[in-house]
Every structure is written in structure tokens, then in C-alpha cells.
Automatic annotation (TrEMBL):
Name listed for the protein in its UniProt record: Glutamate-1-semialdehyde 2,1-aminomutase
Family from the record: Belongs to the class-III pyridoxal-phosphate-dependent aminotransferase family. HemL subfamily.
Localization, UniProt: Cytoplasm
A GO term, aspect molecular function: pyridoxal phosphate binding
A Pfam short name: Aminotran_3
Keywords: Aminotransferase, Cytoplasm, Isomerase, Porphyrin biosynthesis, Pyridoxal phosphate, Transferase
Keyword Transferase: yes
GO biological process: protoporphyrinogen IX biosynthetic process
Entry-linked Gene3D superfamilies: Aspartate Aminotransferase, domain 1, Type I PLP-dependent aspartate aminotransferase-like (Major domain)
Chain's gene name: hemL
Length: 428
């Protein structure tokens, strides 16, 4: 594969931006080699700046549930752009998208739009602290909630610990307010609530944790978390930035039949444009300024072009029974890949989210520390071999893959063939 143009662009980029990128994982550090520069995407595939074509399973890290450049989304964006790129004032599209969110998501009575998932989570945490008047928050090891200070925290050893920052620039005093517990462990959870419950403003979880592989949780674990929150007066926040509008119209809340107090959204809700949102119970959301004392604002929030992209995306998903189709496509992916992976790896999947876990010694992990370290080494080699064959998986073993409505049976067959060849080339 010739990637001379990507290499030249990357050299230029590295002179100008940290590691040449605007988000760390794009730098390919986890898999090695030069990042591929996209030129154009269409449907399930994209062409890079050297003219190579790939089946794309990253899909912009989740937003492109309809595939690249879906005609209806592009048309909606064009029309909106012609009417004005930004107003910084109310517009009809934000009302229409808010109606969709409120009608779709369990327990969501009021919603506010922001411009990213990080912003949505940051604001939801502030609302929880404002509503409860409590300082601490609880999160789970392996769950990612964006890059705001309080959430860039991981656990030390032990069951429930005070957090220590996992990023430079996060004050220890702030990280100490974040209690971190392992996933899939009721006992650790109960101990954490016994110790800190009365100080907790909220517990936040990715109900379908998809940022350290795909760590599928048992419903009983999520239900126990909801019970402990209710009993202690802490709010339950579902971070549905990945799962919202992807696994079902009502996200993981619908899948598990558990309604959180607040939820955060991003990715699919913007259809590829910068949109995030947080919403939930009316009395809680009434804390948000100017109704209440919790300040939150944004110059580009509710941007008309971004709202149009989100709205068009959700309309197509609904009209085409998208969630059912994506589940069928996921099953097809499993059928195509599982026989090839046999003895070499596992395909963990929920709907259109999947994770290639290259270990077979134990069942698919449900918690971060159960992920076999050698799986990442194996992934590194396989990633390169698949790239050479026109299959673009996320450049990190800990990232999941996404199917879109644009992926076809041909794409899956192509991927299966590439995987077979790639596995014949890499050894473990
Ligand atoms: N929450 C979850 C579950 C995410 O997966 C992400 C990003 O991947 C975020 C929050 C942050 O969203 P953004 O990257 O739009 O700031």
C-alpha cells in the first residue's frame, strides 16, 4: 500500500500540532505507523489522500450511523447553511431536535444542547452537584466520559479508592472528589456507597462501556447501581454519548429498562456535526440557568446547521427501522467473522457496536482489569495487516468498531476475507 501523501502530510502536521493531530488516538501511536489521511468518505467506505480505499469501521468514532455523507443529511446541512451558519439565538431546528430527544429517551423531560460529549458530561455533573449540594462523584474504571478534569481519573488499587489524576494538569485535590470503582462488582459498589453515599452528587456510567473495549454489563449490576443511587440520594447519570440513538431509539436506558435521572448524548445525535446534549428529569434540569443557579452556556449551542444534521440522521433512522437493520447487520458480521476468529479471538457485540478481542483464554471481560494485556500486542499486528487489505479498524485495541446502515453484505464478506488472510500472516 502506497501512503506517500499521508506520510508527507503527517510530517507537515507534526510541525504544527502536537503529534500532528487534534485528538490523541488519531496519531496511530497504539498501532504504529503513519496515520492515514482521509480525503473523502461515501457510505461505508473512504478514500485516502493516496487513492487507497478502505471499508471504514471507525465511522468518525460513532456519529456516522448512516455512513459517510448520507445524501439526506448532506442536503439538510446544505439547506440550513444557506439560511445562515450560526445565529446564537433560538431557531426552529433545535426545537424539532429537542422534541425528538424528549419523545425518544426514557425519563427525559428537558434537554439542553451543547457542542460535544465532553461538554454534555461536564454540564450534567455540575447540574448533579448543584441539585444535590454534594461534592463527590462516582465513576467506573474503564469508562470514558470526555476530557473534563473531574473525569480524567482512574482508580488505584483496592476496591473503591479516591481517584488519582490520569492526566497531567488535573489537580489532585479535584481528582480526590471522584470515587472510582470497578465495573461488574456489586460488592465494591456497595462498599463505595456505604462509605461515600451521603456525599455523592451522582454516579456516572457508560451503561454499555465502549471505551476500554466493549465491557458488557449485566442488567443486575446496573439495576443495583440504580437502587444504591436512589437509596443514597445520588443522581444516576447514564453517559449515552456512544450508545444514545445507536443501540435503540431510547439508548441503553431502553435496552436495559432502567431510567436514569440524567443522560448525556453526543455522536449520533449530531449526525457527524459537533453536537452534544444533556437532559433528564424536569425538576433536576430546572436547575440549569437561567431557570436555576447552575450556569451553562455556549456560543454555538443549538447551532442550526448541526441541529439539521442530527435531525435528518434521526429521521432516516426512524423511517428505515434503522435499529432493527443494524442488529441484523451485527448478526451477519458475527456469522462472517466468528468462524475465522475461532481459537484466535472473540467478537464482543451489542447491536452495531463491536470489539475485536484477541484472546480466547477466558470469557469476554466485563471489567477493565480483566482485559488480557497481550490482546493489545496482537491487535497491533493485525491492525496493520487489515489496513494493507483495505479494512480500517480503530487504531487502538481498546477502541470499538461501528457498523452503519451503509455497510453491506459485500463489505462484510470483503472484511471476512481480509481477516482470514491477515490472520494467516500474523502469529501468536
Ligand atoms: N462520553 C463517552 C461515553 C464517549 O465515548 C465520549 C467520546 O468518545 C465522550 C463522552 C466525549 O465526547 P466528545 O469526544 O464529543 O467530547
Amino acid at each position: 500500500m502506497r501512503i506517500a501523501t499521508s506520510e508527507a502530510l503527517y510530517r507537515r502536521a507534526c510541525q504544527l500540532m502536537p503529534a500532528g493531530v487534534n485528538s490523541p488516538v488519531r496519531a496511530f501511536r497504539a498501532v504504529g505507523g503513519t496515520p492515514i489521511f482521509y480525503r473523502q468518505g461515501q457510505g461505508s467506505r473512504f478514500t485516502d489522500v493516496d487513492g487507497n480505499t478502505f471499508v471504514d469501521y471507525v465511522m468518525s468514532w460513532g456519529p456516522l450511523i448512516l455512513g459517510h455523507a448520507h445524501p439526506e443529511v448532506v442536503e439538510a446541512v446544505k439547506k440550513a447553511a444557506e439560511r445562515g451558519l450560526s445565529f446564537g439565538a433560538p431557531c426552529e431546528a433545535e426545537v424539532a431536535l429537542a422534541e425528538k430527544v424528549v419523545a425518544s429517551y426514557p425519563g427525559c423531560e428537558l434537554v439542553r444542547f451543547v457542542s460535544s460529549g465532553t461538554e454534555a458530561v461536564m454540564a450534567a455533573i455540575r447540574v448533579a452537584r448543584g441539585f444535590t449540594g454534594r461534592p463527590r462523584i462516582l465513576k467506573f474504571e474503564g469508562c470514558y466520559h470526555g476530557h473534563s478534569d473531574s473525569l480524567l481519573v482512574k482508580a488505584g488499587s483496592g476496591l473503591a479508592t479516591f481517584g488519582t489524576p490520569s492526566s497531567g494538569g488535573v489537580p489532585a485535590a479535584l481528582a480526590e472528589l471522584t470515587v472510582v470503582v470497578p465495573l461488574d462488582d456489586e460488592q465494591a459498589l456497595e462498599e463505595a456507597f456505604a462509605r461515600y453515599g451521603s456525599e455523592l452528587a451522582c454516579a456516572i456510567i457508560e451503561p454499555i462501556p465502549a471505551n476500554a473495549g466493549l465491557l458488557l454489563q449485566r442488567r443486575e449490576f446496573l439495576a443495583r447501581l440504580a437502587d444504591l443511587c436512589r437509596a443514597s440520594g445520588a443522581l444516576l447519570i447514564f453517559d449515552e454519548v456512544i450508545s444514545g440513538f445507536r443501540v435503540a431509539r431510547g439508548g441503553a436506558a431502553q435496552v436495559f429498562g432502567i431510567t436514569p435521572d440524567l443522560a448525556t448524548f453526543g455522536k449520533v445525535i449530531g449526525g457527524g456535526m459537533p453536537v452534544g446534549a444533556f437532559g433528564g428529569r424536569r425538576d433536576i434540569m430546572e436547575q440549569v440557568a437561567p431557570l436555576g443557579s447552575v450556569y451553562q452556556a455556549g456560543t454555538l449551542s443549538g447551532n442550526p446547521v448541526a441541529m439539521a444534521a442530527g435531525l435528518a440522521t434521526l429521521q432516516v433512522l426512524e423511517r428505515e427501522a434503522g435499529w432493527e437493520k443494524l442488529e441484523r447487520l451485527g448478526q451477519e458480521l458475527e456469522l462472517a467473522l466468528l468462524p475465522i476468529l475461532s481459537g484466535r479471538g472473540q467478537l464482543v457485540r451489542l447491536g452495531s457496536i463491536f470489539w475485536l478481542y484477541l484472546d480466547t483464554a477466558s470469557p469476554a471481560p466485563r471489567r477493565f482489569d480483566a482485559i488480557a494485556p497481550h490482546a493489545a500486542e496482537r491487535y497491533r499486528a493485525l491492525h496493520r495487516a487489515l489496513l494493507e487489505r483495505g479494512v480500517y479498524l480503530a487504531p487502538s485495541a481498546y477502541e470499538v468498531g461501528f457498523l452503519s446502515l451503509a455497510h453491506t453484505s459485500d463489505d462484510l464478506a470483503f472484511t471476512a476475507q481480509a481477516l482470514q488472510q491477515a490472520l494467516a500472516e500474523v502469529y501468536w
